[in-house]
Amino acid sequence: MNMTRRNFIHAGLAGLPCISLAGTHARLFAEAAQAAAAADRNDHVLVVVELAGGNDGLNTLIPLENALYYNNRKTLAIAKQDAVRLNDAVGLHPSLAAMGELFKQGRLAIVQGVGYPNPDRSHFRSMEIWQTASIDKRPPAAGWLGRFLDRLPPAPDDRPSIPGLALTGELPQGMRAGKVSAPVVGQLDQFAGLEEGGQPRHQLRRKLGAASTPTADPVNFLRGQMRAAYRTADLLKDAAAKYKSPVEYPASGLGEQLKRAAQILSGNLGVRVVFASQDGYDTHAGQLEPHAALLSDLAAGLAAFDRDLTALGLADRVVVMTFSEFGRRVAENASGGTDHGAASCLFLQGAPVKGGCHGQYPSLAELDDGDLVFNTDFRRVYGALLAWLGCPATPVLGAEFAALELL
Amino acid sequence: MTRQTKKTPERRGGSGGLSEKRRFEQKGTCARMAAEFFAPLPSDSGHRFDEKRAAHLLRRTGFGASPAEIAACVERGLADAVDGLFQAPEDEAEKYARAFDVVNGGMLNFGDADTCRAWWLLRMVSTAAPFREKLALFWHGHFATSVDKVEDTRLMLCQLERFRRQAWGTFRDLVLAIAQDPAMLVWLDGESNTQEHPNENFARELMELFTVGIGHYTEQDVQEAARAFTGWHREAGAFVFHAEAHDAGVKRILGKSGRFNGGDVVNILVAQPETARFLAGKLLRFFATPQPAADVVAAAAELLDRTQLNIEWFLRDLFQSRYFYSDACYRQRIASPVEFVVGTVRTLGVRQPAPELAGNLAGMGQRLLSPPNVKGWDGEQEWVNSTTLAARAAFAETIAGLNAEGNALQPDCPIATRVSPEITAPDQVVERLAEVLFQGDLPAAVRQELAAFLVLGDDGPQPDAFRDDEGFRAAKTRDLLAVMLALPEYQAY
Lengths: 407, 493
What we know:
The complex is a heterodimer of chains A (about 400) and B (about 500). By secondary structure, chain A is α/β, with parallel strands linked by helices.
């Protein structure tokens, strides 16, 4: 008996590690099946809003009672009485009044002191770290959102699905994936004419381009990709046509993107991740006014999005996360601006979040070369979001990070 | 039960373990292989250097060409045409700075990355030496440096000029120049590499991505090479050697030891057989075929090795080889966005402002001067997804609709430049455009569909209107062009 069993194991399962405990094996299978089922049922949506350029966390979430803040920010400090007070210690930039309302309703979570070890002050490199969720010198090619998308069970063939969607001009690194090709609809009109119907030339283009008669590569491969493009165009057009909303969004790039996000989410296309971006946070000089305008646009956009999702009945399954590649230095510079820094804060918004402030406000006394020191690894935020999306976090993040209780 | 004996994996590439005799025999085999694979295109009637082959040569060594250029190339013959590639003028920089001002009607602001992108595109579109720009693009993808980190566009443009000037010299000289290139010194942190604080970034990529390739060096080699490059810094836009920051001690790299400096490391690396193999694979993928077979790469590596990595000698043989014109290469690549955009503009002879072309490229996933990372663009199938295909289709519409006022055609609209108004039969119009864009290589079934579409009016087929009504014919031909430029067959390059 014993011999047979051993032979069986050697012959049939050679190479598989940890196969001696048949019980563990069965349990692992059951867990994987459960996880797959949960992922299948889960219809939660993450909307990521990138604040490109390095948002000044200190002037976003202001340490109201900290004298060091006022000392370091002679011209840029937000006066205590102007800030939107959240509690005894911190207040939001006055431009973020709408977000203060969401905070009161428990729909806004603020994570303080977010960052990562050995912070890099290059936009390019630090963005790469946030988007790949890796501090390795040679990060994975796929982004963290792309890796999540790759793990989703495939949609049944009869159900149209666009799991990931970028509203930016180009596919952000975070959404680069191995298998899933997330459409970028930065310019929705780029898809115009690709949908069914349209001009006779468009119909002919579709007929010839997406022909399904098999042929040799590369034409065969291109045809397959074209069929996918045409299907995406159909779905997006359909969603846009059905969307009706009284909510007004700010007439800005971000406002447009968020409106489009609501439009597409209302179309029930199986979207799980949306990526939007707002640029301009690299405030090296004359920061006060442009920064106020950016935050004001952000707050107006996010508040409109929140109202719209509520009206569309989607509020219970959508969470927005903002992030920026780094914060700014504690001391302002001589040009009325701030230079590239390190740790900062980020927002999670939506009905599902545990509202309030999480993590510690970083010390303004104990700095690392003039920069705030992080106390919360950003991947702990990602971990919480991945779990909420029904996805095991460790394989996506490549290591274990204690998820914050944010949701 | 028999125990499986463990097979010793065969050594690849390096021949350190082989006897002199074996090594010699192996070399002999490779040489024969190279001779076979890169045997010249025969001169018999089945291999005539015709329009198709000339267009193939002009696509791969440039960006596509007009029917007149293709005809002239056929006329010259293959040997002469390839000679011509390497006789390109060396420096057109000033001419292009002036040309850009004329086109854009304003001062050239080289501080702006978008302007620099447009400027390069303008050169690609209008240069008399497209081969030099094509190789510059190849090297830009190989030594992939991004303005997003370098930030200083002047450094990027200097690097680009270096690629142009040294486009087809010896690889060793180019690697050395790049190791001292200010943009590269910023990009891979060479400027902060000192004896006290060695920075391995450049040394690692030099081995992994620029020369021998991953798996052919150790961590120790990287660390030692980084020491050899200490003190290789820059002051503003120029390379400087800071002796006080240089580690002059003994280093041990890939089995050799000495008081090496950066130049020694470059010499050691380019002498490795793996460098020839790595470079051969890259050159073949860019110029010949997306997935070259292993024996083709081996033969190409041998050829490169024999020429001591002389790019010109290698490419001369490749471009005149039977292999280069075989089914393994012909229209087997997927056009990169640059090839698609610049190629279309050159093929049709249209004018379009370069900044707009740069915008088109971004939508298709290729921002010049901003490769996604130090590995460069993955290319081929990675270019293709819903979004980038939509961008290609949109570009096709833009080009086909250029300079059309109502239904009339302006003199430099793409239809007027390529389809004579005397052609009034729908199948001949299709024939003509199939000739311009595909040198005739378009399936008959597709042509039939296209011809049927040409005469289709609001109320069904109107062949008489197509023949007699110039406005109707022009509008339909423009629509036809938009369809043809978006065909999957047209993206096959």
